[in-house]
Automatic annotation (TrEMBL):
Name used for this protein in its record: DUF7598 domain-containing protein
Keyword Iron: no
Bilayer-crossing regions: 21-43, 49-74, 95-113, 125-148
Domain of life: Eukaryota
Skewed-composition ranges (Low complexity): 249-258
Organism from which the protein derives: Hypocrea atroviridis (strain ATCC 20476 / IMI 206040) (Trichoderma atroviride)
Annotated stretches, region: Disordered: 231-265
Residues in DUF7598 domain copies: 14-147
Record key words, sorted: Membrane, Transmembrane, Transmembrane helix
């Protein structure tokens, strides 16, 4: 986003414009899906490969339905599904791929009018309008996705469309309800996409693996210092060497307990 686009007033205006564009996009996609089924019904069945033409139009209608669901994803489980399966259509990305998809749909519908179809003028006009609207609003979504965004802060056009001047990056929140540690690791990975350098500590933190330290080894020097230390009870009295402690001695015990060899009677 350019510098003048960082003002809250323009972000608030972007909320209104993008919401109006959202409504027009949903209506256009529904019209395009209906136009696809009109074309399926009116395909010339006498041609040998008409079945593939019908499948092509069927997939276009399914794609229109997917784009409508992505624009009307108000439930949380739908958002999670889009983030996992269709991330470019989720709330973590902008509207550029939505615009490209609508342009492809519009070109496909307008190209189908080149065939000889037995349709009335009203149905032909409906297909023509659906193709033109898909092309126009797809181009507008593509342009607006680059106008209302802030790549430095990770804010997309969908964030501005949802919150306006209070927009914050949605990718900083946990996607699948994990722990706070896993969420913070995802935040570091998100921020790393906009950084060209990473320190070793950052890489260690992002990998989630703490640096292992070797166990402490008591050397002979430490033992000598320990042996030369004073007694904690009597100051000035040297404590004996630790190696002479009975627990470190492998010799047999000095004292043995034995039972008296006496008769009980």
């Amino acid at each position: 986003m350019a510098g003048f686009m960082n003002s809250p007033a323009l972000r608030g205006a972007g909320l209104v414009i993008l919401q109006a564009l959202r409504v027009a996009t949903v209506i256009t996609l529904l019209t395009a899906g209906a136009a696809s089924w009109i074309l399926i019904i009116n395909v010339q069945k006498s041609k040998p490969y008409f079945i593939f033409e019908c499948f092509t139009l069927f997939f276009v209608s399914v794609f229109c339905s997917l784009l409508v669901v992505s624009e009307l994803a108000f439930m949380e489980f739908i958002k999670i599904y889009l983030r996992r399966m269709w991330p470019v259509l989720s709330d973590h990305h902008g509207l550029s791929w939505l615009g490209i998809g609508m342009i492809i749909i519009g070109c496909n519908l307008l190209g189908m009018l080149n065939h000889d179809l037995d349709m009335s003028s009203a149905l032909s006009s409906l297909v023509l309008a659906a193709g033109i609207l898909s092309f126009i609003f797809g181009f507008l979504n593509f342009v607006c996705s680059f106008i209302w965004c802030d790549r430095k802060e990770g804010i997309t056009s969908r964030d501005i469309r949802a919150n306006g001047s209070l927009a914050r990056s949605q990718r900083q929140y946990s996607e699948y309800g994990g722990s706070s540690r896993s969420a913070s690791i995802r935040n570091e990975k998100t921020r790393s996409k906009f950084m060209f350098w990473k320190s070793e500590k950052d890489e260690e933190y992002m990998s989630g693996q703490a640096q292992s330290h070797p166990p402490y080894i008591i050397t002979h020097h430490v033992r000598d210092i320990e042996a030369q230390s004073d007694s904690p009870i009597i100051p000035g009295l040297k404590r004996p060497d630790t190696a002479l402690h009975p627990m470190n001695s492998r010799s047999s015990r000095s004292s043995r307990y034995s039972e008296a060899n006496m008769s009980r009677f």
